[in-house]
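ok so for the tutorial part 2 we go from a plain amino acid sequence to predicted structure tokens. step 1 is just haveing the sequence, like this:
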Amino acid sequence: MSIFSRVRSLFRSADVVAPERLPSPDEIVVLAQPGGEPEALMLQQMLAAEGIRALVRNRDPASAQGGGAGSWWAYEVCVLRRDLRRAQAIIGDVAD
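step 2 — the prediction. this is what the tokens look like for a chain of 96 residues:
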């Protein structure tokens, strides 16, 4: 058995589990699930005032497709992963 085969067998061991990849800072993550569209838009504007871009997403396919307002539970406010901690601090200050 060659040295390369031995080294390769070490890395193929079932005991060693490496993460496939680290999360991207440009990944979009959910910051909050507010109680309706007006609250979601208010949070988006507050974050924009602090220089954080936010996305308001309607998760209700029936209302999103029809162009109407979604159910109160259907909205999410999303930010980039790199801005998540700052956005949580801003949202936390408002909630307190």
